[in-house]
Give the backbone structure.
Amino acid sequence: MLAMAGLSASAARSLASEVVQAESAMPAPRRALLSLFDGMVHMDAQGQHPPSAHTAH
């Protein structure tokens, strides 16, 4: 996924390692919630994402 976003292989490995380290500090129940996310969120260069057809729960 990171390579699809345009990161080099070394940058992707480094970022993935940092994510693993950051997530390891989270309580297990909260970390488990991360696995419930499915899909990708498209962002523009300003950090905004276009409106989605997804409705709130």
Notes: Residues 42 and 48 are 8 Å apart (CA to CA). Helices lie at 9-24, 28-34. The mean pLDDT is 83. The two ends are 27 Å apart (CA to CA).
